[in-house]
Write a structure and sequence with these properties.
The chain is an all-alpha fold. The protein has 14 helices and two strands, in the order αββααααααααααααα.
């Protein structure tokens, strides 16, 4: 019952906050004009990240405080917390998310180049690391136990690996944010898969932690009606930074479900590496914005924006379902390998079908890199 209430509350709250964020964007002049890489029509505010974050933040704070305020009979609806460090990680998630929203808001205002974006991602990873959100144990896909034994990975590797994970996820989401509703829908799918895994698959069940992806799922669903094509609001850098950070953090908080996250976001993550290599081979800075992303190439082939977005959602949801159905780590590794091969085939086909080059207009929407 509490999961359904959380979902409905977060969805409704974000749905009500989104028009307010849109009006704020118009008032502050934080809007996207059509032209260049942008093919939308009309002036659209890019302050949707504020609604996404506030919907998630308020819902999470209520989940944190209500059990102490409600009668004992009602407080029993909330699952108990079994990990004494859970609150500390939750604080790191909210602080890091708030930092990403503020930094993204400034990026939307001043159109930062890749250097400051790198710094934001690095600081976000360090916030998570100091808040005990780090990758310490990695399952051995070839057998039982963890790589490195029960002690896990050495500490000299934990820090760089964790920061790299956060920077990689934030870049993946940032680069994916090119079509209306694409990132919002993929985030909703990711959160649904994580929540279902924590509630029904993980042993022992992680019920208290599962409330976090449910709250973020509700925020994404509440924002989606305004963000799906034809969009009335964009999430902006504040939204893409926050969602990238939140996905990276929830994948670790949920028991290091890194493989689960990579199966759902495998195609977008591989495309980041593909674009970096492709641009480097053509002598173009990896941070240079352009229309050589897969979703842009498909759009330039004449496929409608809605069909491309739905296709991405179906692809991510299919591999998300695989993570829920497969138990053995080796099977997940094989599925991840198949995903990689399929993604590379799609990327090669798209690059040959639409051989475009990135735009080189000064100061236009440079993207972050890993």
């Amino acid at each position: 019952m509490i999961f359904l209430i959380t979902l409905l509350f977060s969805t409704s709250l974000t749905y009500l906050l989104t028009p307010v964020a849109a009006r704020l964007g118009h008032r502050l002049g934080l809007v996207d004009q059509p032209g260049g890489r942008r093919r939308h029509t009309g002036v659209i505010p890019r302050t949707g990240g504020l609604a996404l974050f506030l919907g998630f933040l308020i819902t999470t704070l209520l989940l944190l405080g209500l059990p102490a305020l409600l009668p004992a009979a009602w407080a029993g609806w909330f699952p108990s917390r079994n990990d004494p460090k859970e609150i500390e990680r939750l604080v790191a998630l909210l602080v890091g998310g708030g930092f990403c929203v503020v930094a993204g808001f400034l990026d939307d205002r001043y159109d930062w180049r890749s250097g400051p974006q790198h710094l934001v991602q690095l600081v976000a990873g360090l916030i998570a690391l100091t808040g005990l959100i780090f990758i310490k144990h990695v399952n051995n896909p070839l057998g039982g136990g963890f790589i490195g034994g029960e002690a896990g990975l050495p500490w000299w590797l934990v820090g760089p690996l964790t920061v790299f994970w956060f920077m990689g996820m934030m870049n993946t989401v940032n680069w994916l944010d090119g079509l209306s509703g694409l990132v919002t829908g993929v985030t909703a799918i990711m959160c649904a898969v994580l929540a279902l895994h924590m509630i029904f698959v993980a042993q022992p069940h992680q019920l208290s932690v599962a409330l976090l992806p449910v709250a973020l799922l509700g925020a994404a669903l509440g924002f989606l009606p305004f963000n799906f094509a034809p969009a009335r609001i964009f999430m902006g850098s504040s939204g893409s930074y926050f969602l990238g950070f939140a996905i990276a953090a929830l994948g670790i908080i949920g028991g290091a479900r890194v493989a689960t996250v990579m199966l759902v976001l495998g195609l977008p993550a591989l495309e980041v590496g593909w674009l970096m290599l492709s641009r480097w081979r053509r002598g173009i800075p990896p941070s240079q914005g352009g229309r050589d992303h897969l979703h842009f190439r498909l759009f330039d082939l004449g496929i409608s924006e809605q069909k491309i977005v739905l296709g991405y959602w179906l692809f991510c949801a299919s591999f998300g379902a695989i993570t829920l159905l497969l138990d053995a780590q080796i099977h997940k590794l094989i599925a991840l390998g198949c995903l990689g091969v399929l993604a590379i085939i799609v990327l090669i086909w798209a690059s040959r079908a639409v051989p475009v080059a990135p735009l080189k207009r000064p100061g236009e929407g440079e993207e972050g890199t890993i």
